């Protein structure tokens, strides 16, 4: 696959380039900041257009949120372009904004938790193929922030665990192995979760995960709007 990297750390950027090349992937651009990002995407020939973009959250010049804002801009201009956001911390607000777009494949991983090269490459390929991979800490914070919502309160602890695993991109088979359950039991939990959240179980795992987290976020936003006219 063709990959675009936007990362200010020379060591990490070069490491990603070498890692991806070693794994048989092509890095079409490796940028130290977001300055030339949109220009590259706008002018890239079809055979050179990335199939996934990797962006760090904190980039020059302020090292605050340039990368995540660029990710949102890319999502707005190229909604079907898969994105993988790498971050040192959970940027909760922006993670929610990205998830709420409900378009395009998405990954959000914490750098300190990317410890296995094979897992990282597998996650990258899963996202590029249209999947969703969210770090469990990201999921935990988003769910915790909304756990006072009446619909979230209907979920049992086991259902919350299953939902978090779903959001991490795990298959039903992987969840069953993780929780020592049968796949039939996992399917029943998933059906129950989306019934309680008022979401239709349409069989499209990634879209269901995105819709669930976006729905949770929307509930909180709507409540804030009502209390702050």
Automatic annotation (TrEMBL):
Q: Which GO terms describe its molecular function?
A: DNA binding
Task: List the keywords (alphabetical).
Answer: DNA-binding, Phosphoprotein, Transcription, Transcription regulation
Domain (HTH luxR-type): residue spans on this chain: 148-218
Please state every residue range assigned to the domain named Response regulatory.
2-126
Q: Which GO terms describe its biological process?
A: phosphorelay signal transduction system; regulation of DNA-templated transcription
Looking up CDD domains in the UniProt record yields: LuxR_C_like (cd06170), REC_NarL-like (cd17535)
The family database entries (Gene3D superfamilies) matched by this protein are listed as: 3.40.50.2300
Q: Which residues carry this modification: 4-aspartylphosphate?
A: 56
The protein's name = Response regulator
What is the scientific name of the source organism? Glutamicibacter soli
């Amino acid at each position: 696959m063709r990959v675009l990297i936007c990362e200010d750390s020379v060591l990490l950027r070069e490491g990603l380039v070498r890692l991806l090349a070693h794994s048989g992937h092509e890095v079409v651009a490796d940028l130290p900041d977001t300055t030339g990002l949109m220009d590259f995407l706008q002018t890239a020939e079809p055979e050179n257009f990335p199939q996934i973009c990797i962006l760090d959250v904190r980039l020059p010049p302020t090292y605050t949120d340039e990368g995540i804002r660029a990710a949102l801009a890319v999502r707005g201009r190229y909604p079907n372009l898969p994105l993988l956001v790498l971050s040192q911390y959970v940027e909760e607000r922006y993670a929610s904004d990205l998830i709420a777009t409900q378009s395009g494949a998405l990954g959000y991983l914490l750098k300190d938790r990317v410890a296995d090269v094979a897992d990282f490459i597998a996650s990258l390929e899963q996202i590029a193929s249209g999947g969703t991979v969210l770090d469990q800490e990201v999921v935990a914070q988003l769910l915790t922030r909304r756990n006072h919502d009446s619909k979230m309160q209907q979920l049992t602890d086991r259902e919350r665990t299953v939902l978090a695993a779903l959001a991490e991109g795990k298959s039903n088979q992987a969840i069953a192995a993780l929780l020592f359950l049968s796949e039939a039991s996992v399917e029943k939990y998933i059906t129950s979760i989306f019934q309680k959240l008022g979401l239709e179980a349409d069989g499209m795992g990634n879209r269901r995960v995105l819709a669930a987290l976006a729905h949770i976020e929307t509930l909180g936003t709507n409540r804030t709007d009502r209390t702050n006219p």
